[in-house]
Amino acid sequence: MRVFPFLSVLTAVPLIGAITILGLGEKQKNRARILALVFSFIALALTLILWHRFDATSGQLQFQEWHAWIPSLGAEYHLGIDGLGLVMLLLSAIVVTMSIAASWQIRERERLYFSLVLFLQAGLFGTFTALNFFHWFIFWELSLIPAFFLIQLWGGPQRASAATQFFVYTMFGSVTLLLAFLALFHCTGTFDFLRLSELARDGQLVPALAANLHWHRFTPEHIALLIFGGAFLGFAVKVPLIPFHTWLSSTYAEAPTGTTMLLTGAMSKMGVYGFLRIILPIFSPQLRSLLTVLMWLAVFTVVLSAFAALAQKDLKRIFAYSSINHLGYCMLGIFAVASLTGNSVALTTTRIAALDGSILQMFNHGLTASTLFWFVALLEARSGGLRGLNDFGGLRRVVPIFTGLIGIALFSSLGLPGLNGFIGEFLIFRGVFPLATWAASLSLIGLLGTAIFMLTILQRVFSGPLNQRWSNMLDLTVTERLALLSPIGLMFALGLFPQLILGIINSTVMTLVQQVRY
Amino acid sequence: MLAWTIYISFLGALALMLPKVPARAARGIALLAAITGFAITVSAFLRPANGVMTTILHRSWVPSLGIEYYLAADGISLVLVLLTGIVAIAGVLFSWNIEQRSKEFFALYLALIGGVYGVFLSADLFLLFVFYEIAIIPKYFLIAIWGSTQREYAAMKLVLYSLVGSAMVLIVLIAAYVIAGAKTMNLLTLSQFRFPLHFQMWAFPLMFVGFGILAGLWPFHTWAPTGHVAAPTAASMLLAGVVMKLGAYGCLRVAMVLFPHGLDPWGFTVLGLASWRDLFSLLAVIGIVYGALVALVQQDFKFVVGYSSVSHMGFVLLGLMTLSRIGLTGAVLQMFSHGVLAALLFAVVGRMVYDRTHTRDLTALSRMHLSKALPFAAVTFVLAAIASIGMPGFSGFVAELQILIGAWSAFPIYVVGAGIGIVISVAYAWRAMQKAFFSDAGPESTTTPLARISMPERLGAAMLIIASLTVGLYPQLLLNLVIPALNSPLFDGLRKGHWQ
Amino acid sequence: MSTVSYTALLHLLLPEVIVIAAALVVLAADLLISRTAPTRVRFITAAIISAIGCIGAVTEIVRSPQQANVFNGTFVVSSETSLVQIALLILTVLVVILSIESSFTSHVGEYFAVTLFATTGMMLLVSSENILLIFLSLELLSLSLYVLAAFNKRSSHSAEAALKYFLFGGMSAAFLLFGLSLLYGLSNSTNLLQIAHAIKSPPLDPLLAVAIVMIVLGLGFKVAAVPFHFWAPDVYEGAPANSAALIASGAKVAGFVIFYQLMITAFAGAEGSADWKNFTPGWVPVVAIVAALSMVLGNLVAITQTSVRRLLAYSAIAHAGYTLLALVSHTEQSFVALLYYAITYALTLIGAFGVVSIVEEQVGGEKLSDFAGLSSRAPVLSICMLIFMLSLGGIPPLAGFFGKFFLFASTLSAGQHSPDLLWLVVLAIAMSTVSLYYYMQVLKRIYIVKPSSEADPIHVPIVSQLALCAIALSILLLGCAPNLFLVWLHQPILFWL
Q1: For A259-278, what is the mean pLDDT?
Q2: B379 lies in which domain range?
Q3: Residue A343: what pLDDT?
Q4: For a designed S-S bond to A358, which of A142, A330, B154, C82 qualifies (C-beta 3.0 to 4.6 A apart)?
Q5: Is residue C338 part of a domain?
């Protein structure tokens, strides 16, 4: 039975787009952005088709493609998506389209810029569909390069050090991840995620590790913990979890805003995805043994980042820390799922809630944060590059529609019921509370902090006396309004009908929860 | 058919020496010869090959001594011949602008290529040595006439080191020939001969070091950075890209095949080392780390690349010493990968940057805003740099991965060393990249803009990048040739003692 | 066979007779006819006559191959001697052709006649097994060469060189004679084989030891081996280029051949061994030490030379060392290797001296600096010199490399089952590597260094060009297809030994 290789085609579309754009001649460079937009729409359309054909009731992998690649290294070309993967694909497609739209004003080396964005999209698609570590790792690393260049070449004044930091941190994480998986390969002979999670579930992973890595000074559990540590670091840097987050705020600030949308909307999700796809199924016993530490890390992430955001004066940095905060909730949910043994129905329901919440939060945050950064881009365009908290004041008088729309986004990020941000957080807390009450309680402080800085933004930038400097600021043009309509609309839609997403992921989450070893 | 790669190169060189040929046509002839050679290789590639040693030409040469004109290729030879073809074409493209004595330049270039092809395709040890030596003299002239910094000294140093290495090889070769009855120099026949153990114990290291000198084995590597820096671009591309692989090839094809028991434990331990294998793998790892560390502190852009070559060849040698199928496969793959990438790096540094800016000093370059002035060069260098640090998707990743996996079973501690080397390589690549291209020091220059990157340069760069990407994404292309070759009877001796 | 009719003897000696006749004709022609003609015409005429003579001799040898052993080994004709004689004659022809453009002397006829006498001496030398005739022909050769070395009356170097040559040569001839007479005393015969028979019994007679040393000394001088090499640099430097070429080529070949034959045949039982583990007294260890010293000294001192001629001289000493390895291993194969090596070496040296003489004449000197930029001034000449230098250095695919390989392989094969002569071979290979350094210095000047001020092309006479190209091509050919030569060599060897 020959199935249409949907996923390969999907990954190929942005690649072809990127190469085409690179091949444009000197005269045609204005077509670059249009081409980029076209290709991103094609990709979006494909993902929507994928959604349409996706069987949401089964939690199994669909659209699988399986080819031998490097047999001697256990590398296979194995693609497939389940609900989680589909959601990530949808998110990436949406965020990239938004990013391209937000970067419409780029005048310098446009061909390179837009082709890099499309390369990045290909990398994202590849990461979210791969089921063999080797293949997955290639795309994981390959998404680094366009990101690096986007920051380095079009970024702000401190871009060199920001790009370096970004690169070094992520590289470091990748190296530990690679080493961990090499060890796994050495001990089990496979790079396949499914096979590895099967081994973990049957309890055969740790003995395999102990048998093949002759580190006699360590007990098998310690060996497993070491390997887990390597993999953990790789993803922890990406999410990021405190204390591996120090690269993020300068990177987000210095990157051109269209790129920051990509970074926060899609690339940070790679980290969380990694936890869901790889860490949880394969290393959940190790998660459990370190649970307290991890939960504390998650809590710190949530709380400290919220208060760090409070201290920032640069809008982009505020939103950067806010990203850390929101993803901290996801981590909270994921870690909580690994806690406690037992298979009772109530526990299962709780776990499902937590995971549902994490995934939903991922999607929603991706959407919301990208939109927020888009607004910042629009503001920068009007203010000539300024984006400090204290640079503005009373803008709602001059740009009321802008204020209105950004207000919606801000409130969504806050977690106002009726907008998309609420459901995810709610489900997470619903799941974490029974599983780790103290963590949930402490994290509430984070909610408080978020509320404070979001409202602060509204107050300082948009309310209050009008800063005369901006009395001639132009409001959103018709094009901009139309463009922003979609994400804002989605925020409402998802806020009122979270089933849109939940429907996709529910079965998958159930399967996932059952796959984890307790 | 593959033998024609050799002949065409030499014929091309000869044609270029004729007085009637106009100088303008020189590069065209050279390009034609290079492309023909490459096309022949590709056609051999496409034929369904099972990777084992296939005879191309087998004639008697000096019957009284048992020397034969015996050309044959197995999967490993084919991979390296392919590499030579690619780098040869790229080298000509990057030398398109040579004006001074261009006929002689391309004649020497083609002669060098011919010699290299010959080494990879020889199955008679005398013939292999002949080609090996033939490849030495053109190097001298290429560097001493068209080179830059300290060229005469660098050329002489390079040639003398190479000659010392080949002298060592010759000694062992003649001794082995005599011990095996002075009847044949046929590699396949000799590989079946059981040399006495005590003979193997000194013959192997002597020959390994002899070939290793050319491969940049630490601490005999000092000719390499000096020589590569002084050489003109095409020559450094060939030298670092292909000629260093001659040494590694010799190590594998001759030293390890003929004297597998030279790798056995001595029976006693010296400083923790119990066999030549331990010693050479230690030297390999030292080479990896040392090369990387020295590259990190260089002020001359080309020296960074030169030392990085030493570091990467250390990987090849480490892979050879793992004596496991996967490690050896990785070593051959790394030979290919580093060949392509080193050529690319030298091309960027030498041709794209130095020819235009006339400086290789990183501090001076950092004031030139090269990412704006030469964007193509910047992108190419970045791609080459990330490929050479082992970014997945490029050829280096699979190669280094295999070597590390192989080394892990044999000497885990060296894997740590190699890992450190990789990390340092990220650092020096980073530093060079930042300083040369992406630094914003100094004002925007108002002096005359630099010449655009010409079409031959773009073609050459594209070729090399595509080669690295193709092998990175689909390494089976090459693995399908190398793995059966390693399973052939030629490597029996290695297999019996050690294979994993 | 003790009585032979004179006609038969003349028939056997026909090649030598032709050469002598040619010499006389040259003398006569020059005296009678061309005294009034310009030097160049005289040179050409004399050269042509000499060349014809030599070629005639070659034709005679090839046309009627003989086998004979006359007067109890006094004169031996076999396929092997014929082969060496052909080689010597060809070398002489080349020297003669390259002398066409010389202008260093007005005694043209005498010059060529003496050259031909030297050739006769060489031919007789290699075809004798009798110590008397050996000595006589050696003296004929040597005296002719002393005269040839002195021929440039305008140069004091020439006279000095010839004097040194004469003094050294005379002294060494005396030693040789002394040693030969001791042999006679010990064996009561002048025939090599009979001598061998007589002195076969061990232990080593002290008188025999003295004889061995004397003879090695005497013959070592001829081939310029250490420590009898002191004449070589000065003679190579001072003598006119073509005389030096003959000294370096033909005389060497003949010298090596007779050295080998003498030692192997006469001292057959007294070899001893130079193996690393068991050093047995005999002439082999003596020769081994001489060889080792020659290789080391020749190569090391050559590095410091600034005069190309002296460089060639010291390299000649080194090459003598390599060639003597064949004596140390004294097997059938070694002899073939020796012949191959000596003949190709001689060819190369003639070529090298040919280039040097042209550079001397056109540029004004033969220091390394005079070769600067030669590649742009005389491209064909430079390529020939490239081939010569690389062949001397032992770079494949040239004859020099194969010769060295053959020599080393046969040296190692000689050991019973283990290569105990390995130390000599290792030394040889190491020194050979060193030698490339100074050959590259010459090539560096030619190809890399820019010429001084006047970089106008050098006029190279067409005949010389042709001759040099022919030599270069033959070196390339002999290197790529050595079998051509070896096949030729192997059959005769079996007959002779």
Answers
A1: 89
A2: 3-498
A3: 65
A4: A330
A5: yes
Chain centroid to Cα A267, Å, comes to 5
User: Which residue range is the domain that position C349 belongs to?
Assistant: 282-497
B204's tokens: 């192997």
Instruction: For residue C344, tell me if it sits in a domain.
Output: yes
B412 pLDDT band, cuts 50/70/90, is: confident
Minimum distance, in Å, between the CA of residue A26 and any CA atom of chain B: 14
Give phi and psi for C70, each to the nearest 5. Answer: -105, 145
Q: Which residues contact C242 (CB under 8 A, 6 or more apart)?
A: C95, C98, C99, C102, C353, C357
Is A105 inside a domain boundary?
no
Residues in C 314-343 with any Cβ partner in B closer than 8 A? 333, 336
Put simply, whether A211 touches B (Cβ < 8 Å) is: no
Q: Which two tokens stand for residue B409?
A: 């079973």
Nearest residue of A to residue B394, measured between CA atoms: A138
Asked if residue A23 belongs to a domain, the reply is no
**Which residue of B65, B103, B172, B199 to mutate against C (max C Cβ within 10 Å)?**
B65
For the packed helices C462-480 and C379-393, what is the interaxial angle rounded to 10 degrees? 30
Cβ distance A167 to B434 less than 8 Å, yes or no, reads: no
Query: Out of B126, B145, B164, whose CB is closest to C433?
Result: B164
Per-residue model confidence (pLDDT) at position B119: 94
Task: Please judge whether C409 and B174 are an interchain contact, meaning their C-beta atoms are less than 8 angstroms apart.
Answer: yes
pLDDT in tens, A6-41: 888 888 899 899 888 887 777 777 788 888 899 999
Count the domains in chain C.
1
What gap in Å lies between CA A416 and CA A408, rounded to an integer? 9
The pLDDT tens digits for B248-303 are 999 999 998 888 888 888 888 888 888 888 899 999 999 999 999 999 999 998 99
Residue C322 lies in a domain: yes
State the best of B372, B386, B409 to mutate against chain A, taking most chain A CBs within 10 Å. Answer: B386
Residues of A with CB below 8 A from B398's CB? 70, 73
Domain range for A453 is: 290-518
- How far lies C106's CA from each of B450, C109, C153, C245, in Å? 66, 9, 9, 19
| C323 CA: distance to closest CA in chain B (Å) | 17
Cis, bond preceding A146 (omega within 30 deg of 0): no
In a domain, C118, yes or no: no
CA–centroid distance for B376 within its chain: 26
Domain count, chain A: 1
- How many C-beta atoms surround the C-beta of residue A183 within 10 A? 19
Instruction: Report the number of distinct structural domains present in chain B.
Output: 1
CB contact under 8 A, B405 and A182: yes
Q: Please say whether the beta carbons of A498 and A87 come within 8 A.
A: no
Q: What is the DSSP string of A26-74?
A: STTTTHHHHHHHHHHHHHHHHHHHHHHH--TT--S-EEEEEEEEEGGGT
SS3 of A95-138: the string is: HHHHHHHHCCCCCCCHHHHHHHHHHHHHHHHHHHHECEHHHHHH
**Which helix (H) or strand (E) covers residue C77, if one does?**
strand C75-77
Q: Which of B325, B329, B405 is facing A186, going by the closest CB pair?
A: B405
Enter the tokens of residue B405. 């996996």
To probe the interface with B, which of C299, C333, C384, C395 has the most B CB atoms within 10 Å? C395
Residue C355 is encoded by which pair of tokens?
């280039």
- Domain presence at residue A257: no
| pTM for the predicted model, two decimal places | 0.85
**pLDDT for C144:** 93
Residues of chain B contacting A164 with CB distance shorter than 8 Å: 430, 434
Query: Could you tell me if B56 lies within 8 Å of chain C, comparing CB atoms?
Result: no
Position A263 in a domain: no
Other CB atoms within 10 A of residue A339 CB: 21
Q: Where are any strands of DSSP class E within A254-344?
A: none
